[in-house]
Amino acid sequence: FSVKEIYDVLETGEILYLETSNFNSSITIRANRLYDGGSLGLNIQGQGMAAYVWDSGNVRGTHFEFPGNKIVNQNSATLSDHATHVMGTIVGEGVVDISLRGIAFDASGVAYDWSNDYAEMISEVLTGPMLVSNHSYWISSSPNFSSWMLGAYDSRARDFDEIAFLAPHYLAVTAAGNDRDDFSNSVIGPHLTSKNGYDLIRGMQNAKNFLTVGAVNQVLNYISPSSVVMSGFSSWGPTDDGRIKPEVVAKGVSVRSATSESNSSWASLQGTSMASPAVAGSALLLQQYHNELFGNYMLAATLKGLIIHSADEAGIANGPDYQFGYGLVNTERAAEILTSTSNNTAIVEENTLNNNQSYSKTITASGNEALMVSISWTERPATANTGVNDPSTLYLINDLDVRVYKDGTEYFPWTLNPTIPSDPAVNTTDNFRDNYEKIEIPNPNGTYEIVISHKGMLVGGSQNYSLIVSAPNMNLSVKNLEKEEFGIRMFPNPTQGLLNFETVDNLIINKVEIYDTIGKRVLSSQINNNSVDISMLTSGVYFVKIYSGDSQITKKIIKK
Question: 531: number of CA atoms within 13 Å, CB side?
Fold first, then answer.
């Protein structure tokens, strides 16, 4: 099912078109476990949340699946079956038929058509609380389509990365594309033959900060990786620079949702267009749960990292691949990690790494399931490809690294070889391509040191990143619970007024600076009686930079 429309004309002369590409969807990604009556004992159904959708037209807001004023259409576009189906997969209520219920069915929806998408996205992140959006469309493969676009980090990808970098709490979710069976296309057909189905993803889907979703059959009972069956159409990566796309997969075959023909119409459609909104709905649920637990929303890098970190293994070999990414979305496991974090038995941290700085944390872990350590960060935009076929350019700007050490053994993150994209992932070398890295250690037993560092000089002088750690039986050491880096403890957090500091080993704090989430310094102060008064700051999230001798650390605080 598709709709096409002229979107842009490139300097190279190509005319770009955009093209479009529920109940069992929630079971497949285990979002239903978060609902009232679900196995987790929660009541997370999207209450108070809003899903933003850019698509080929307006959503039929009068549909029975969107009661009251649930949907706001922001453009004067014509009604779209595709847009209505996508929105229904995210927020459909299940009024007429429970099988039409969306993933975050108690959330509301805001709908735009795609004709001015990036400008409208910028407007929303600047003026409103947009956290998650869905984009189930991509550059069309006809008529003026060139093979260099396949896998390319083009201007659409670059421009989105700029938006994401300026809006660190905003995660956009997109469909990978449906090209793997399009042998009749004059460009894609030969490409499929020469690349064996790989290197198909194009346009904004190749942005470093988009979460790109592939489509698989429904999975009503995940038992093993073989439970996840790839669709016949879902586009595979990698990007030209070897980054992992898609990052995750969800149900995209025979997805039943509302359509625009009437107030009770529905259709069963397939495509990565149907998989992407399921993941967008899952992202909304996780943001809602995080806010319920901690009183704030995750950074987009944290949310994206958590979704990837918790995914179920898929494919024929352990680790990620360019077909399934890191696997099948598992919303239940992601929520469990948040719960464990609130109990200090898992880690979800948002930190800042400065130039020439490393960060370490010691944990103990044991059990029959893997110890998993991930880092995720929102990347700066890179220079776009404007017509080169399969360039050797690397588009990573700030290259962070995660390692785990135990008894002289160094554990590496998963990496893939884009020159032989069908090869299984390895965990014996450095990942210098992706802005998400994951280490898995089977059957952990003992004490492990996690170290985050960086290569070269960080552009901008620092890089925010998120650390996610989980294991079946994991504990932070007393030191990690009570002492911050360099022997500095900061409390209380959250705080309404005084922020207190405690040091060990005769450390002296020289100065404290506080920055808001866009990097503006809002306070610079000497320590007075081991505390700093921040009562004058408005409520929200801030970053505290602490200077002690030649060392400095940055930590996040919440001002109530």
Answer: 13
- Scan for tokens 């496991």, then name that residue: 333
Tell me the helices (H) and strands (E) count for the chain, helix number first: 9, 28
Question: Quick one: pLDDT band at residue 484, thresholds 50, 70, 90?
Answer: very low
pTM of the complete model: 0.84
Q: Where are the beta strands (DSSP E) in 10-113?
A: 15-20, 50-55, 71-73, 108-113
Residue 92, Cβ density class (10 Å: 0-12 exposed, 13-18 middle, ≥19 buried): buried
Q: How far apart are CA 329 and CA 259, in angstroms?
A: 25
Q: Round to whole Å and give the CA distance between 359 and 345.
A: 19
Retrieve residue 469's tokens: 């750690």
Is residue 410 helix, strand or coil? strand
Whole-number Cα distances in Å, 259 to 64, 89, 100, 353, 386: 11, 11, 10, 47, 37
pLDDT confidence bin for 478, thresholds 50/70/90: very low
| Per-residue pLDDT tens over the stretch 314-324 | 999 999 999 99
Is the Cβ–Cβ distance between 349 and 553 less than 8 Å?
no
Phi, psi dihedrals of residue 505, rounded to the nearest 5°: 55, 35
Write phi, then psi, for 301 (nearest 5 degrees). -65, -35
DSSP state of 293: H
CA torsion, points 22, 23, 27, 32, in degrees to nearest 10? 110
Residues 78-93 have a mean pLDDT of: 97
Which H/E stretch holds residue 216? strand 211-216
Phi first, then psi: give them for residue 556, nearest 5 degrees: -90, 140
Q: What are phi and psi of 211, to 5 degrees?
A: -95, 110
Per-residue confidence (pLDDT) for residue 3, from 0 to 100: 52
Q: Give the residue among 66, 111, 59 at the shortest CA–CA distance from 80.
A: 59
State how far the Cα of 480 lies from the Cα of 292, in Å rounded to an integer: 25
User: Residues 419, 420, 424, 428: is their CA dihedral positive or negative?
Assistant: negative
Q: Give, for 521, the enclosing helix (H) or strand (E).
A: strand 521-525
For residues 233 and 60, the answer to whether their CB atoms sit within 8 Å is no
- pLDDT tens-digit map of 400-416: 999 999 998 999 999 99
